[in-house]
User: Which sequence fits this backbone?
């Protein structure tokens, strides 16, 4: 049982509790997805395997009933980070309504997406590819790793975006005393968007790349059906960002961490708020712990704020020849930014409040603590 002093649960081979799998066969390489499906059915039993996307939309009500019926100790999620986030929404909701026991449904990840940064952080690797030699034997090794993994609590975060704008109220007419035309103006109109964050949030050139890829994927879905192709497209859009990205305006951008103003480094072109240890498919921002900040952990109630100077800087960090700029660490992050800068959350663009003339207030605070498996260090 999880306690504050012992934040883990050893999953032993002799444990007879149920392990189930939720699979997104649309993630990753087609041959790998079909192989994973067959192996899960073989080792766990067909009755313990559920297909999250029987059509274009996820079967959320059916997934809830499936989990309620099994009340599993471990849920293996085969898919990308977006699929994992969806399952965490489901399991947290079921535990919150007592439809699952408080210490059940620990999520383990079989990474089949493009970036898979949560899977990397939890020690399950950067992307599953069907091996050419002895694939069945090697898949069994993955299941053995899950059996020997430990359960931990992981933070999830609430991201609130608020835009204020002065709008004209549609009220015109004549003044009752003078007969002159008059117009009434409304007070500030507040637009609020709330999201749940699992991995990271960012503003700047990297979010522009995410937005461009998202638009391209929506227009050409068949050209984004493989992990290798997706990485190629990200590279193409990254080349464009080398020429088009601009530094943040210092007088307009404001960063507040735990109610203290923090200076954004001059020349910053992207500001990232991260909960996981890697970004952009494996870039490690905080591997050097010889500084005033605590070692990052997904369950420490803290977020890391990092600055990047451009595409070449990110590429250098990705290759291990440059270091990201550590800006701050805290549990309450607030950013005031012009709305014309692109934003992204967990690898998906945030376009709901996009507008070239407004300011957006971003507030990130702790939302909940969920249950996941990790084999890092085990």
Assistant:
């Amino acid at each position: 049982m999880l306690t504050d002093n012992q934040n883990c649960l050893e999953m032993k081979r002799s444990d007879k509790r149920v392990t189930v799998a939720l699979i997104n066969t649309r993630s990753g390489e087609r041959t790998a997805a079909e192989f994973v499906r067959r192996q899960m059915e073989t080792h766990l039993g067909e009755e313990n395997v559920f297909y999250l996307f029987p059509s274009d939309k996820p079967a959320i009500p059916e997934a809830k009933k499936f989990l309620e019926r099994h009340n599993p100790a471990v849920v293996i999620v085969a898919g990308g980070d977006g699929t994992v986030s969806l399952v965490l929404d489901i399991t947290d909701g079921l535990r919150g309504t007592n439809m699952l026991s408080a210490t059940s449904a620990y999520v383990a990840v079989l990474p089949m997406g493009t970036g898979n940064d949560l899977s990397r952080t939890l020690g399950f690797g950067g992307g599953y590819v069907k091996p050419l030699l002895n694939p069945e034997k090697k898949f069994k090794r993955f299941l053995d790793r899950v059996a020997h993994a430990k359960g931990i609590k992981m933070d999830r975060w609430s991201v609130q975006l608020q835009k204020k704008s002065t709008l004209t109220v549609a009220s015109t007419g004549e003044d009752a005393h003078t007969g002159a035309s008059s117009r009434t103006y409304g007070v500030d109109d507040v637009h609020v968007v709330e999201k749940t964050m699992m991995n990271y949030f960012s503003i700047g050139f990297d979010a522009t790349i995410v937005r461009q890829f998202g638009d391209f994927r929506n227009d050409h879905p068949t050209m984004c059906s493989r992990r290798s192709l997706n990485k190629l497209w990200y590279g193409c859009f990254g080349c464009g960002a080398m020429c088009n990205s601009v530094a943040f305006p210092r007088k307009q951008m404001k960063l507040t961490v735990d109610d203290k103003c923090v200076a954004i480094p001059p020349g910053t072109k992207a500001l990232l708020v991260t909960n996981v240890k890697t970004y952009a498919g494996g870039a490690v921002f905080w591997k050097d712990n010889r500084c005033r900040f605590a070692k990052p952990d997904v369950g420490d109630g803290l977020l890391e704020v990092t600055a990047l100077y451009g595409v070449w800087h990110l590429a250098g960090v990705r290759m291990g020849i440059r270091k990201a700029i550590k800006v701050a660490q805290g549990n309450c992050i607030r950013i005031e930014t012009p709305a014309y800068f692109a934003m992204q959350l967990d690898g998906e663009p945030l376009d709901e409040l996009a507008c070239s003339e407004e300011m957006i207030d971003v507030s990130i605070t702790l939302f909940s603590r969920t249950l996941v498996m990790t084999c890092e260090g085990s």
Summary: Helices lie at 30-44, 60-70, 81-96, 117-122, 135-148, 205-219, 227-244, 311-319. The domain at 156-164+190-368 is CATH 2.60.200.40 (Tumour Suppressor Smad4).
